[in-house]
Amino acid sequence: MGKKVYQPGEAYQYPLLIKKLLVNPMINTPNQEIVYRDKLRYTYKDMYARVHRLASGLAKLGVKHGDTVCIFEFDSHRYLECFFAVPMMGAIMHTMNWRLSPEQIIYTMNHAEDDVVLINAEFLPLLEAVWDHLKTVKKVVVLTDDKTIPETKIPIDIEYEDMLKDASPEFDFQDFDENTQATIFYTTGTTGLPKGVYFSHRQLVLHSLSEAITMGSYESIGRFRSNDIYMPLTPMFHAHAWGVPWTATLLGVKQVYPGKYEPEMLLKLILGEKVTFSHCVPTIIHMLVTSPVAKQVDLSNWKVIIGGAALPRGLAKAAMDLGIEIYVAYGMSETCPAVTIANLKQHMLDWDDEKKLDVLIKAGVPFALCEVELMDPMGQFLPHDGETTGELVLRTPALTMSYFKDAEQTKALWRDGWLHTGDVAFIDEEGYVQITDRLKDVIKTGGEWISSLDLENLTSQHEAVSESAAIGVPDEKWGERPVVIAVLKPEYKGKVSSDDLVQFMKKCSDEGKIPKYGIPDRFEFVDEIPKTSVGKINKIALREKFK
Fold first, then answer.
1. Which residue among 95, 187, 249, 396 is the active-site one?
2. Structure pTM?
């Protein structure tokens, strides 16, 4: 691909390419820090040079425009470099969820037609187990912290740092069509084959701009600005870490990458590096706020966006009591992902904490350049009255255009020009979206719908409950009845019974918080609630166990 030659008077058609996100930070904050655990710190200028070396090294391995590079890695500076170098050279970055089963790893790598694999040395046993079933992989690069490569049957081509050391410090990142595919990753359903979603340079740049505007420009809580210190707590393989690494780089903020998620290291980095902004699923914040250390340290400068699953009010209150500024965002793999956020409007900023919580745990208002509506099964739009529920449908520039090589599933995703989320929601008069359930998780009893999220939210407010999940189980008379599975706090084990919690929910019903038919028939106590590979409650496993 040669450079375009411009004729006199011919304007430059500015393409929205990921490389353009590096222009401003290299002017504004070239000496800003990027930190990896307690092992490495360098500057944006260093990162920029390493992005060039990474592209040069991959090109030397044979990677060319349109090839797919698969990445098995913890959250690191190396992953950030891949976020830029791989798509900037016109290749496609496949972020691998290394928590998938071996069968799913084989399927996704073959389906994506991966050409080159960049893999952390710790994951080599995973790759070794599936190696003989991979059809397209030609080269393997190992990523290490200390250049130690364990023995493996996999033919290793080069170690990451050696590749960068031997590569040219200058790579000619050329312009190309902004609609060129930049990334692919796979949804993590608990049944059926994973579905591939993919995004173009144009979509990712627009999502980064929309995220920067929505999270930083409004007079609200949790603003993400150039003086923040960012550390992701959502794996970078999961929906681009919500796109925030690109947004953070665009803003030139200090970035901290924790590697493997270990509570002690996470808290050490949050405190030592003075982290001010993170995002995670509820299970991560639950792990941190229930840690004894959390009560002994100051977390009052930490802003945390929760997504991936509903944030129970009780957990939000526990985080708020520790001084954490916590609020919700909503999105899906198919949406790049972020589409709504629980920004408080200006007139809400003086409300007391309890009233603010009512808003902060909602899915929130739409991001810039995002349209949200409710639709009934007949395809009719529904009112935004805070009561009427329907399926949430979306339009933004950053929605996956289809499932990768799956026309049949795409027909269910896109209908009438709207992306159908499969989530049941209402939208109130202020424009805030509240997800009430997944269509597949709604508990249908006697012709009425009960929101499993409402039940989980109320249960979380009982002083004895650490975590909960609500499911519907078959019932001969009613079709389904609600059952709540709960993890009790250690000090309450053996002291609180199922009937105690049923009585608590009856009180909630008397207060008008749920209808009488929504009171669970029973509570089941477990030591741990099963989760999917991205930390969501595995309700399919729970329904199977407690049916």
1. 187
2. 0.86
